[in-house]
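Meet our chain:
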Amino acid sequence: MGGPGDPPEGTPEGGPGGAEDEYRSVVFDESFVRAARLQEYSAEERMADHAPAVRRRSPLHRGLARQAVILVLLLAVAFCTAVYMGVRHPDDSAQAPRPVQPLRTTVIPLAPQGRVPGGTDAEALYAHSPAARFDIGAEGVPLPAARGTAHFSDGQVMAALTTVKDYIVRSSLYPEVLGGRTAAPARALVDSDQLAQFDQSFDHPAADGRHAATGWVVRIDPSRARLADDRVRVQGDLRATEADPAALDVTADHTFVYALRPAGAASARVSLFTVRRALTFRLTRDDLRARQLQLVTAYVEAGPLSCADDSTSYLHPLLAGQTPHPGSPAATDPYATEAPASLCGTLASASQPTT
């Protein structure tokens, strides 16, 4: 008879090692046990809870949990990528601001057809001129209603208009700028990338369409004339449009009428001097934050002037009783295509005050 540990039928043939070799192929490793759908409760668990001998396990629990975590991570990565590409980089070429372009200027002297009319009182001259209904000073540079664009808010458009108005007032109405003593008030609002051109226009003015000081500001020759009345008459308007998603363009077209008398002659007769400035400005988002601007084009008509005078550094007005100097405008070389042609116009008689 076999021992208590032997199988009922006795030990298989082949000796004690035979059974071990026979069942070696069905020995279960740990992973197989963990994957079993039925799990036996321990003796302690069965006594405590009166539970059945086995309990069913969820074979997919751990696999599903792992897959769910991976799926959530993939969705999060996809969402972040979409946000990054759609918000941060909607169109790099459209969002990137254009390089700052140099100012292009055109200054056209307007010569009178006869003697310049004058009078003893500036108010009377204004009253008998087309400027009779013009506003005085900054009131003549009104701000239009600010309407947001596709990529700029109402507030940003208003900031652009306000900065441009400030530049126009500083460059056209400040007595120290008009008298040629300084250009600093206007310079303070110019984009830093244009300052080199601005400074060269005043240090070395040239009739090259790029470096006329009179394109940046209204600058009257202090050796020839001075203001007889600081209440300059002004009329014009501003308009803002979206140049591209990165910048706003503001166009300004204003006419300024100055009452002048000869320098150093307090009792001399007064005459009117008219300057029309059609300017185009560009303001990027950086300009709006810094409260600066880029001056893109400046088209200036001024008179009465003599076409023979150089109007790049200062405007040299013809005053009451004077006539245009004999001579012709500065010579123009048609082969020098990099320089603009010299231009001169005739001041309409209707633009002068009647005395």
Observations:
- Strands lie at 38-40, 54-56, 104-111, 135-136, 225-244, 247-262, 271-284, 294-303, 345-346.
- The first strand starts at residue 38 and ends at 40.
